[in-house]
Amino acid sequence: MLKTCRFLLLLGVLWGLTGCPDTPCFDGGVGVFPGAQPGVILVGEPARLEVAPSAVSACGQQFDTTPESLTVEVYGPDNQPVASQATLGNPTSALAIVKFTPDKPGRYHVFAAFDPVGGIQQMDLYAARNRSAEAPLFNLPSLCTSLERTQRGGWLCDLQFLRDGKLVKGFTSGRLAVAGDVVWVASSAQVQRYVDTGTELLLTASRSTNVSSAEFLLATENELLMLSSSALDRFVYDGTQTLSFPSSVQVPVTSERVGTTGLSGLLVRSGDRLGLVTHAPPSGGVQPFNSFTTQVCSYRLEGERIVRTADPCQTFTGKVVGYEPGVLWVGTPLSFGEQFSDLRRLEWTAAGIAEQASLPLGQNFQLSPQPFSPRNWVVPVVMSPVSTVGFANRVTVAVYSPERRSILLEMLDTELTNPSASGSLLWTGPSSGPLTPRVRVRPTTP
C-alpha cells in the first residue's frame, strides 16, 4: 500500500498533490507539511527540517495508532541521492526531524514516508551559495531607488553622484546610466557624457536635443541608445566636445506597460542587433482577460543608421520582472496575488529571443518588489519567507549558470529586507524603512 502511494505521488507535481487517487483509496494517508514550507538553504550548511505525521488518512479515517518508522530520501540537483538522517518524534506522533547537508547549489527534493501510518510528504528546497564573504560591503548616506557604480568607485544614486559618502555632483532631472567610468545624463534638453576620473566627474561631451524625455537608456562607454515615447536615438562620442547624432528612428511605443516594470518600452542588445520590448497589441483587437503578452521587435545598427529588420516581432507570455542589456527575466503569474509560479531567463541573440532556463517557484517563494522605471538594469531577488535555520530575512539573487543551463541562487547579505539588485549590486531597497543603507558589490567570478 505504502509503495503504491509513493509511486503515484512521485509522478505528480510536488506541491500540487495532496494524496492518492480517490479510487481505490489507500489508508496510508498523506501528511501535509505544517505551516509554510522552508525554501532556501545554504550549500555546505546542515539543513534541519520538521515533518509531522498525519493523524487522518487520505480516506478521512482517523488513525488509532502512531507511526513506528520514518523513511527519508533526498535527491540533489543532479537527481542523485544525498545522505540524510531521519528521527521520529518523541512521542512518535510528534514532529520528526530530517537532516542533510547540500553540497551544491540547486533544487533538492525531499521524500518522507511514515510507516505503518502517518502518510507521505514531499517538498522542494533550493540550496543557495553563500557568497557574502566575496561581496564587499559599503554604506551610503541615503536610500537610493536607482544605484550604479563606476569602476573607480563613484556612486550614482538617483540624480546624485557620490564618492566616499559625499556629494560630488547633483543633477536636477533626466535619466542616468553608467558604463565603466562613463556617466551618461539624458534629458529632454540635452545629452551629456561625463567621466569619473577618481577625483571628479569631468564633462567630456554634450549635445542639445529637442526630443522627449528618455524612457530607457542602453549605454556603452562611447555610445548611448536612448528610447523615448516615440523614437529610438543614438548618440556617439568621437573624442570631440560635441556628441554626434548619426541616427534616429520612429518606434511604435504604446501607453501599455511592460510586465511589472512601469515602462512602456525597453531595449536589449546583442552586437549590432537591438530588440525593442513592448506590450504586445491584442490579437483581433480583443485583449484576453489576465493576459500578459510581450513582444520583441528587431532593429539593426547599419553604419550610421538604425533600421527595422524584416523579421516579425516575437511574442512571449508572462510578466517581465527584470532586464539586463541582453537578457529578459520573466515570471508566470499565479491566479492570485503578486506571486509567480516560475522565473524564466530569456536571452536576446542574433537569432532573436530564446528561453535559456526556468526556476519553479511555487507558493514558498516570492520575488522582492523593486522599483523599475528609473533603472536600466534589474535582476530578480528571490525571497523565502520561512527559513530552516531561523533567519527571517533570507533573500537571494538569481544567477544563470551557462555550464548547467540553470538558474541558481546566491545569498549575499542576511540583513537586507526587500532589497534591489542589478548585475553588479545588491542594496537596501527604498521601501525598507529608515535603515542605514547597505550595498553589496556582487562577485564577478562564477
Molecular structure report:
With 446 residues, the chain is mainly beta. Among the domains are: 2-130, Immunoglobulin-like, CATH 2.60.40; 171-250, Thrombin, subunit H. It is built from 1 helix and 37 strands. Strands 1, 3, 4, 7, 8, 31, 32, 33 and 34 form a 9-stranded mixed β-sheet that branches. Strands 22, 23, 24, 25 and 26 form a 5-stranded antiparallel β-sheet that branches. The longest helix is centred in the first third of the chain and has 9 residues, at 2-10. It is elongated, with a radius of gyration of 26 Å. The two termini are 46 Å apart. Residues 1-36 and 387-392 have low confidence and may be disordered. Residues 422-434 have a biased composition (Polar residues). This is Putative lipoprotein. Residues 422-446 are annotated as: Disordered. It comes from Hyalangium minutum. Keywords: Lipoprotein.
